[in-house]
Amino acid sequence: QVVLVSGHLDSWDVGQGAMDDGGGAFISWEALSLIKDLGLRPKRTLRLVLWTGEEQGGVGAKQYYQLHKENISNFDIVMESDEGTFKPSGLGFTGSAEARDIVREIMTLLQPINVTAVYNTADGTDIAFWMRDGVPGASLQDDINKYFWFHHSQGDTMTVQDPNQMNLCAAVWTVVSYVIADMEDMLPR
User: Fold this and answer.
1) What does the alpha-carbon distance between residue 89 and residue 59 come to, in Å, rounded to a whole number?
2) What pLDDT, in 10s, does the model give residues 119-172?
3) Of 54, 55, 80, 83, catalytic
4) Which residues form the Peptidase M28 domain (predicted)?
5) 106 with 49: CB under 8 angstroms?
6) pLDDT tens readout for residues 30-49
7) Which domains does the chain have, with CATH numbers?
8) Are 7 and 50 in contact (CB under 8 A)?
């Protein structure tokens, strides 16, 4: 059984892709790194996917889906961060009402950093196939006020990233992915 965390590596032709979506790739990598460094071993596999071809129509995600859809019942949740890694506010979630209640409970663990909201839908080009077929999905929700200042522009560089805000985003990704991967049962569909 798999809990998938992800971001995409490609960028728009004029940008470096630091924010869109290097930040999402980084926090996904960091989540698994933190879990390993803490010596935690969840019941399910945590899988990192660094998508390619998202800006070109999601071709990398389509290929991955085609290769793995026969095991769709083993995917517990698919998570994608693709709207920058600014100050996080919560998690977008797509799934059953029962699964949403579980995710709300998990998010209470993030009260110390004031990131507890669960929004009505998850977004993500790279996880859309899975959610369409009933796999629960999650997307990072953050302060996107500055996102379109840099989106698909030459200004999308590493200087846009705030390390403290990225650490908060990584904390959200780490807690959510680990707790779901370590629960007794998969999220209800």
Assistant:
1) 30
2) 999 999 999 999 999 999 999 999 999 898 998 899 998 889 999 999 999 999
3) 54
4) 1-173
5) no
6) 999 999 999 999 999 999 99
7) 2-182 (3.40.630.10)
8) yes
Residue-wise DSSP of 123-139: --TTTHHHHHTT--EEE
Prediction pTM value: 0.96
Alpha-carbon span 9 to 123, nearest angstrom: 17
The rounded distance, in Å, linking the Cα atoms of 178 and 44 is 9
Q: 92-120: per-residue pLDDT in tens?
A: 999 999 999 999 999 999 999 999 999 99
Total residue count of the chain as it appears in this document: 189
Q: How far apart are CA 126 and CA 51, in angstroms?
A: 7
Sheet containing 75-80: order of strands? 45-51, 2-8, 75-80, 137-142, 88-94, 117-119
Return the H-helix or E-strand segment holding 47. strand 45-51
Token readout for 179 is 């707790």
Residue found by looking up tokens 């705030």 in the block: 162
105 is catalytic: no
Structure token digits, residue 5: 């965390």
* Contact of 94 with 136, CB cutoff 8 Å: yes
Contacts of 180 (CB under 8 A, 6+ apart): 3, 44, 76, 77, 106, 187
